[in-house]
Amino acid sequence: MLSTLVRRTLLCRTQFQVTSPRTFSANQKTTGSFLQTLKNVGVSSLRRTTTAAKASADVAAIQLLQPSQRLVGFWLLGCAGLTAGMVALGGITRLTESGLSMTNWDLIKGMKPPSTKTDWEKEFLTYQQYPEFKYKNQDITLEEFKWIWRMEYTHRMFGRLIGVAYLAPAAFFWAKGYITRRTKIRVVVLGGLLLTQGLYGWYMVKSGLEEKPDSYDIPRVSHYRLATHLSLAFLFYSGLLWTGLTHVLNFQNIERTKQIRSLSKLAYSSKGLIFLTAVSGAFVAGLDAGLVYNSYPKFADRWIPSDLLAMEPKWRNWFDNPTAVQFAHRLFGEISFCTVMAMWVMNRKVTLPMRTRMALNAVALAICAQVGLGITALLLFVPTWCAALHQSGALVTLSTSFWLTHELRRMPKI
After folding, report:
1. With helix as H, strand as E and coil as C, how does 116-181 read?
2. Residue 323: is its pLDDT beyond 60?
3. What pLDDT is stored for residue 215 in this prediction?
4. Percent of the chain with pLDDT over 70
5. Measured at the alpha carbon of residue 264, what is the angle toward residues 252 and 194, in degrees to the nearest 5?
6. pLDDT given at position 410
7. Helix axes 322-346, 258-287, angle to 10 degrees
8. pLDDT tens digits, 292-308
9. pLDDT: is 253 or 262 the higher one?
10. What are the φ and ψ backbone dihedral angles of 302, each rounded to 5 degrees?
11. Candidate from 17-31, 101-115, 117-131 with smallest mean pLDDT
């Protein structure tokens, strides 16, 4: 096209040399039009060439950075693994009622545990000034106190370990240029979440150390703060997992057929439901709502418990009434289970890449195991081992749902 326009322009110029003065002006306008067209085509071609070159350069850059990208991905996945361990340890700390044994918080001084008998007696004396000892653990011995104190201490030290494991490599990779511009934003956001999580953990513990003269309940942390603390942990973990998978797994460009689009919608919906169910589980844990109705599928002999909406105003029941909180958690769990299993059944015969098929099967297996653990914990009056497995199972189920949606994502941006 460009060569044709050049030839036409040259021909016009030759013709202009033999035309009369009267027609010269008109021909000059025609020549200007051709030259403008030639300029536009040239600019357009140049832009297309530049865009293609830039895209090729970006692809080449990604290929050159692939080893460093994988290294960053393995670091993020390692931090995700540590966070999963932290969530499990936090659940055990709560279930063993150890969380209120340490009554102060100091980032540096708090790292040194008591080493002598005098130190332990001083720590025990401090614990005796707070509500948990006054109203619940008056008969606890020094040795028993040491055990719950060490549980909480391990939990806090594990949190500091995650901080070092995240922040130190982040600074190193940033300085080396291993982290891409888009990933830098995620690293900063995740670092902010990590710091917020640590500070909020102490804010949660403080709620259980405060005197509450108007309350007749046993001393415990606020279930609102507990749910927020767990939600922050899940958000931090999810960000690490998603970004780590993006850096480690090769992208699969799945054709966006009608079936794949439907599968994607169900996958993202189930992920949201699983997350919501996990958060509602924190309210169950904070209110000991798992001990209210220990039967399934009915609530005692009723499908709808009689005290479901016993509080006023009505909306408070879904946050403060143990019966309504357990009812909501069961309902969210059942809806999540039905959504995942419907997704699995509907896509059994759909042609999928092997990794995507594995992720779909993993979500189905995880949700089945998680529902089974939940029912078992309920019927056995929430034994510690089963409740701890159920909380860890929530993270496993959420992880598999993130894996599936990650496999179904569009072109990754790292």
Report:
1. CHHHHHHHHHHHCCCHHHHHCCCCCCHHHHHHHHHHHHHHHHHHHHHHHHHHHHHHHHHHHCCCCH
2. yes
3. 66
4. 82
5. 80
6. 78
7. 160
8. 999 999 999 999 999 99
9. 262
10. -130, 150
11. 17-31
Query: Alpha-carbon distance 312 to 65, whole Å?
Result: 59
Q: What rounded mean pLDDT belongs to the chain?
A: 86
3-state secondary structure the chain: CHHHHHHHHHHHHHHHCCCCHHHHHHHHHHHHHHHHHHHHHHHHHHHHHHHHHHHHHHHHHHHHCHHHHHHHHHHHHHHHHHHHHHHHHHHHHHHCCCCCCCCCCCCCHHHCCCCCHHHHHHHHHHHCCCHHHHHCCCCCCHHHHHHHHHHHHHHHHHHHHHHHHHHHHHHHHHHHCCCCHHHHHHHHHHHHHHHHHHHHHHHHHHHHHCCCCCCCCCCCCCHHHHHHHHHHHHHHHHHHHHHHHHHHCCCCCCCCCHHHHHHHHHHHHHHHHHHHHHHHHHHHHHHCHHHCCCCCCCECCECCCCCCCCCCCHHHHHHHCHHHHHHHHHHHHHHHHHHHHHHHHHCCCCCCCHHHHHHHHHHHHHHHHHHHHHHHHHHCCCCHHHHHHHHHHHHHHHHHHHHHHHHCCCCCCC
Q: Which two tokens stand for residue 363?
A: 């979500």
Cα 191 from Cα 279, distance rounded (Å): 22
Average pLDDT value for residue range 130-145? 92
Tell me the sheet residues that pair with 299. 302
pLDDT digits (tens, 9 = 90+) for 205-247: 999 998 877 666 788 899 999 999 999 999 999 999 999 999 9
